[in-house]
Amino acid sequence: MELLPRSPAEFGSARYWDRFFRQRGQRAFEWYGAFPELCPVLHKYVRPRDKVLVVGCGNSELSEQMYDVGMCEDIVNIDISDAVIRQMQERSGSRRPKMSYLLMDMLQMDFPDAHFQVVLDKGTLDALLTDEEEATLAKADQMFAEISRVLQVGGRYLCVSLAQAHVLKKAVEYFSQEGWVVRVHQVASSGDNQQFALPVFVYVMTKFRKIPGSAPQILEICPEEQDKPMRVESVERLVAAVKDRQHYALLCSQLSKIPCREQVSLDLCDKENGKPRYTLHVVDSPSVKPLRENRFAIFIIPQGRETEWLFGTEEGRRQLAASAGFGRLVTVALHREQHYEGMAGIQAELSGKVMELAPPGLPARQQVPFLSVGGDIGVRAVRHHDTSPLSGEYVVEDVKGDGTCYFRRLIFLCNRNVVQSEARLLAPTPLPGQKKRRKDKKKPSPADPPAAIDKSYLCCEHHRAMVAGLCLLGGPDPLPGASLAVLVVGLGGGSLPLFIHDYFSQAHVAVVEIDPSMLEVATRWFGFSQGDRMQVHVSDGLDYVAKLAAEAPAQYDAIMFDVDSKDLTVGMSCPPPAFVEKPFLQKVKTILKPEGIFVLNLVCRDAQLKESVLATLRDVFPLLYTRRIEGEVNEILFCQPSPEGRRDPVELGARARALEGALREPGRPWDSSYVLADMLQAVKIL
């Protein structure tokens, strides 16, 4: 039996619907949204004494159920199909005397103006507005005009819809321009009995008298029936918010049926301000054969540790899920702009939502464990939040690491999962003559960590490798006492130039930084300072190098590039592409001494682009070494202008040990984990 229309236009044809309902018989046809799901929303807007008009009623049981539960009795149902109107009159005539069924076209209704308090539409607008052809849009305008005419001021038009973008946009634009208040409810699904993967929405348009002039639009969305409305500023934002919820529903439907081959990522937003509150990654481990009780778990990443390899990369999360022994693990990252009430508060907030991401076949009442490192949610304290015209919005934050150490970080919020600069913090020491107050029993707050910078510690592995690269410098004695001229392009928090300045006592360090805000941040928050042997030039690195190449060639023993790119569309986040173009690299070579070294931090995810960069470097620098940073995308390139400086691994190791021995002067702090020889062990010649 063929019930589908031959073309979308047939949805507006009385002949099609007569044939449809004759062939279907007495069985009720519900487009979507069963009464138990719709009831909580309808109860908010339909009062027992309201006069209700149902347009395009079909043989849905909605009106009958509203009548039978006492929600409302004065209900008029209209439809263009004579067959269905006769069916419904026979079905309800004697049992529901106050409810009527009339053969009528909603585009030309016979009712007087302002006759109803509620107009209810379940799927009718969706059936009418099948495309965006001019004739179709004109019919929608006619439908809306008739609904507006028969509704009283203060009356509500309730439209149950799947909220296709063009349908929602058309309805919201029409009624908001008429001065009506528009609110969109997402209908809570009934779980396993849900017919459609897409969620059902109810548009609630409340009629107000149109105010002359440009009155502000009132547009709201209620994500679920129990939530209070959230105001949105434009039709486009409302349509986007609905689309987000549709995508989420499709995702949950997919995840509930089959394991996901690739990791799925999504943000859960704050209900008050709409900003991301949690970032979730769904990780399935097909190789894990979990026990029944180990099929699903939630892992809360401690604040400030979301950038670590184990939590911040696909491979790391895959390893975490496998080692945890769960078939599906959802990792949860907490956002810095949000406040959290400990592990128990997060569990209470997320327990209902994460069950929507449960694997296929998980029993509805099964307890799902919430896991973390050490059982807490970590510590994060934002020390400074500002915006730079060049670097955009950024924060300086203190976070608690693994164990008792605290770290200070600089994060650019345009790329919030990347730590731009990091420094370890020292425990505070009493000032001379200052005694510890024994009577003060107040414990230090975990959210108020120490503030002194440990300048002896290089947090970033790529900085460690860059310093180790100085072992490649020419001459028999490349030790800290040697007079070195070093150029560092890219300041960040200043850890790299500070370390070179402090540990190479005769080194003169010039730093080039394009953003004056970063010099301010490094000085105020990362313990950076200038002096006789440390000078910062606020300039574009490209211009500075070009000027030096023209005026004073061959003056630097070492040149180091640690410059991030602001263009996130390029597959290379460090350095910007202009810094590795051949004409500029030739200028870099010009200002480098013949036995000097050029060290480049390369972060490139585009394999083809990376090959091109390496080829260009080889064209300019005959001798090229590379050092991959384990667990990161970073690759440190050591470039020398003469092939005669080539050193074998044995010689490199010897030079590294000699340099480290000299750097470890008695009484000078040195981190025991930093072994220069280890840094150079994995160096390869390209």
General description of the model:
The chain is α/β, with parallel strands linked by helices and 686 residues long. It has four domains: 8-250, 3-Layer(aba) Sandwich (Rossmann fold), CATH 3.40.50; 258-360, no CATH class; 380-425; 461-685, Vaccinia Virus protein VP39 (Rossmann fold), CATH 3.40.50. Helix content is 30%, strand content 25%. The protein is built from 19 helices and 28 strands. The strands form four sheets. A nine-stranded mixed sheet has the order 3-2-1-4-5-7-6-8-9, with helices on both faces. Strands 20, 21, 22, 23, 24, 25, 26, 27 and 28 form a nine-stranded mixed sheet that branches. The protein has a five-stranded mixed sheet with strand order 10-11-13-12-14, with helices on both faces. Strand 17 (406-412) and strand 18 (419-426) form a beta hairpin. The radius of gyration is 34 Å and the shape is elongated. It starts with 13 loop residues before the first helix and ends with a strand. The model is unreliable at 1-5 and 429-449 (pLDDT under 50). Residues 50-170 form the Methyltransferase domain. Keywords: Methyltransferase, Multifunctional enzyme, Transferase. InterPro entries: Lys/N-term_MeTrsfase_sf, Methyltranfer_dom, SAM-dependent_MTases_sf.
